[in-house]
Structure formats: C-alpha cells, structure tokens
Amino acid sequence: MARAARLISEINSYTIILKANNDIQFNSHDKEVFLDTINKYNQVLEYKFLAYNLTDTVLTFVIYDCDTPIDTVMRKIVVSFVSKYNLYHNHSGKVFKTRFVSLPAHSVKDVWDMVYDVHNLGDSQYNSALDYYNNKYINLECAKQFYGNKSNFEKAVINRSNVDTLKSKIVKTKINDAELISYITKEVMPIEDLKKLEKNKLAALLTDIISKTSASCRQIARITSFPLRMLWNLGKSKSSNKETK
Predict the structure, then answer these.
(1) Any residues with CB less than 8 A from the CB of 137 and at least 6 apart, and which?
(2) For residue 239, what are the domain limits?
(3) Tally of domains within the chain
(4) Contact 75, 38 (CB under 8 A)
(5) 219 contacts 180 by C-beta, under 8 angstroms
(6) Crossing angle, helix 199-212 and helix 228-244, to 10 degrees?
C-alpha cells in the first residue's frame, strides 16, 4: 500500500513526532545527543526550534520557519542521531518504529498553539517549558517576539488547557489493565452488566470508553471479552465521525 502524501505547511512549520522502536528506551544521554543533533542542523539549515518534550519512547518538538523541505531536515537529523545511538549502545537495527509524523501549522497562531501543547504534555524532565528563557536550544528571539516577556510566557503555559488533540496524536499515557477495569466499573458499569445491554446501547458505551481512555481496542477486548473486530469497527466509526465534523 502506498504511503499517504505528507501534508505541507504553508509557513514551513511543524510539530514532529518520533516514536522509538519497541525494544528502545532513550536515556538522558540519548536525549542530550538528540538535542545536540537538532542544534547542529539548526545552525546549518536555519530553522527555528521552539519547543520539545522528550520521553523514553517518544521525541516531540516544534520546528518553525524552515525553508528546507521537512523530509530533508528530518532525514539529516534521524540519520545522524541513529548513527550516534547505535555507536554508543553498540546497537544495530531500527531505532525508530516508523518514519516521523509531522503535524503542519497553517498560521503563526497554529505554531504557538503547538508550542503550548508540547509544553503541556508535561511528562518528561526534558520539556522545554521547564526553563524556557534559559534554554540554549530554543530560538529565544522568536519566542520573545510572541510572548513579550517571561511572565507572559508562564501565564500562557499555565493557563493553557486545550491539549487533548495533540496528546491523542502523540502518545497518551498507557492505561494498565487494572486501571482500565477500575475506570469501566466506576465510570460506566461493571463489565458483566455491560454484557447484558442491547446492541446499540453497548456500542455507544464502548465507543465512549475508546474515546475517553488511552486503551487500545485489543486491550479492551482482552479485558471485556467483547469481539476485537467489533471494537475495531467502533474505533473506525469514531474516527470517521470526527473527520466529518
């Protein structure tokens, strides 16, 4: 199956998401190397690096005003980082699970919405919001033009709450089986009672569970014993409904 064409930003600005391969966990050294790699190509390709959140399995960041095609930028960054990672860890094989995900910005407001969203992921000590105005990797001049001062920046980050869209596209914190059972039992109804519902009511509740938790359809099927194919179809239906709104 052919890959879908990458969506292009009219202002050459993107949130980028790189997910580690299943056997990979990035440590502090790896994250420092990644930031140094970003900075190295920042000097060469002259893009503006505005935000990042680096976890053990997902690297998320915002690039702004990049005249070089994003595929070219990311190819250089990924090849360089992977080479350093493999050498340091004596590793061979894939480091990233898939090619990078790019979410295009279509206005300057989009860019700063993305910055807010990445900062509000808040699940890593490697998050540029922690010391933004003393961060050697961030393009501070660009940030100051928008925020004005540190106080305005801090207010924007603290008051920002509408981050569900980006979080869902990046990496929701995985819910374990016990947490999923507890959520269904307390917020919906006991699983055994779910099994007694008529089809339409059951479909509505299962769709709600898929939407409101980070659980996969496979995990829900395992916990509830509902058919995986049915849950997949409900998940697809949920996505289709969002796209048509």
Answers:
(1) 35, 38, 39, 42, 49, 52, 128
(2) 177-244
(3) 2
(4) no
(5) yes
(6) 70
Across the chain, mean pLDDT equals 83
Q: Which pLDDT score is estimated for 120?
A: 80
pLDDT at 157 over 90: no
Rg, the chain, Cα only: 20
Residue 9, domain member (yes or no)? no
Same domain, 27 and 69: yes
- Facing residues of 60 across strands? 17, 53
> Would you say residue 6 lies in a domain?
no
Mean pLDDT of the 61-87 span:
94
CATH number at residue 161: 3.30.70.1290
Task: From 139, 170, 201, give the residue that closes a domain.
Answer: 170
Q: Say which residue the tokens 């992977």 belong to.
A: 82
pLDDT over threshold 70, residue 162? no
110 in any annotated domain: yes
User: Are 164 and 187 in the same domain?
Assistant: no
Burial of residue 37, with CB atoms counted within 10 A of its CB: 0-12 exposed, 13-18 middle, 19 or more buried: buried
Confidence band of 233 (pLDDT split at 50, 70, 90): confident
On whether both 97 and 215 belong to a single domain, the answer is: no
The span from the CA of 107 to the CA of 72, in Å, is 22
Q: Rounded to the nearest 5 degrees, what angle is found at the Cα of 55, between the Cα atoms of 61 and 99?
A: 60
